[in-house]
Amino acid sequence: MSQFHSGMSAAGPSQGARAPSGGSAVHEVTSVGATFGKVAVLMGGVSAEREVSLMSGTGVLKALLSEGVDAHAFDPAERDLGDLKREGFDRCFIALHGRFGEDGTVQGALELLGIPYTGSGVMASAISMDKVMTKRIWRFEGLSTPAWQQVSSAEQTRAAFAQLGTPMIVKPAREGSSIGFTKVLTVDQCEAAYLAAAKHDDEVLCEQFIAGDEVTCPVLGNADAPLALPVIRIVAPDGNYDYQNKYFTDTTQYLVPAGLPAGEEEAIQAMVCEAYQVLGCRGWARADVMIDATTRKPYLLEINTSPGMTGHSLVPMSAGAAGISYEALCVRLLEHTALDARASA
Asked: What's the pLDDT score for residue 3?
């Protein structure tokens, strides 16, 4: 089983307290760190994933400081993004999750400010944040993804249940971290599931449930030469990989090596690289996949273009299995900061 796939558990630092939105403590900048200039670690923000973002950003900040980078915490919920230009920041590490951080909005602002940033550009970020749009593109490109319907009422949710069958997944189309997620077993649960999702987004996705192995696969690099890291198989209590089991419990198992049948990991890595390419992603991302228990066919669920970097997060875990430390991963991502304008120039 290959560790990497190219071309087609070292968990992060412990979860820290809320990081300040101002500058970091005085520290020595090494010659390596100096090549990056003054770096803002964008964390917090105003999305429903603010708490997770603060944990991710705190870990990234600590890692960059340990490598001699002149890094500073910056919370867009508390400060004007224009301060990035006024205070002379040279690049940004985006540790924001969800809306106004992962959806192309912050990326667009940084484009206008002319400050290179980690991760995908405006269009790829916006598309990837919208699960419905992502699935449309993947389906058009011939990539497998579970059947779905977009709904705007409880009545439409019940109609989707009649078509997609039981169980059915109901979730916001533009949120992450399993926020507003419900696994529907009976038609009587449809209304509550719709309302739980609609509380977070007026676009609600109903999706066919695929029973089988749940895996995830990070990707690094540009779309023309993506590098897939080792696949992680996720075994959550009662198969419920929800917000609590993702970030705040130690009962979920993360298996890397994933222990999949021969050839499956390589096939998933290849599929994830293609999924990354057709969306135009760059820098890094993490794709979530379900493998049908009967047919062993993999199905793409979604892709995260600003993945978590907490002590429970999966990208640093996969990178660790490939011999890349948390600190080295953060530096590597910072090395690939870019702007759409420069990428197309």
From this structure: 52
CB 59 within 8 A of CB 15: yes
CA 27 to chain centre: 30
Which positions are catalytic? 49, 177, 247, 286, 288, 302, 304, 308
Q: What is the pLDDT of residue 5?
A: 57
Q: What is the pLDDT of residue 105?
A: 97
Q: Is the pLDDT of residue 32 over 90?
A: no
Other beta carbons within 10 Å of 96: 33
Is the CB of residue 305 less than 8 Å from the CB of residue 275?
no
Residue 11's pLDDT is: 33
Residue ranges of alpha helices (H) inside the chain are 31-34, 50-66, 82-86, 105-113, 122-129, 131-140, 154-164, 190-198, 243-247, 264-278, 314-321, 326-335, 340-343
Q: In this structure, how many other beta carbons lie within 10 angstroms of the beta carbon of residue 208?
A: 18
CA atoms of 37 and 15, how far apart (whole Å): 26
Rounded CA Rg of the chain: 19
- Residue pair 207/148 in contact (Cβ under 8 Å)? The answer is yes
In the three-class reduction of DSSP (H, G, I as helix; E, B as strand; rest coil), residue 337 is classed as coil
End-to-end CA distance of the chain: 39
What whole-number distance in Å separates Cα of residue 330 and Cα of residue 71? Answer: 12
Looking at the DSSP assignment, which residues form a beta bridge with residue 129?
A: none
Domain 11-118 has CATH 3.40.50.20: yes
Hey, what CATH class is 148-208 in? alpha beta
pLDDT in tens, 166-205: 999 999 998 865 788 999 999 999 999 999 999 998 999 9
pLDDT of residue 30: 57
Fold of 127-144+210-332: D-amino Acid Aminotransferase; Chain A, domain 1 (3.30.470)
Could you tell me the residue ranges of all domains in the chain?
A: 11-118, 127-144+210-332, 148-208
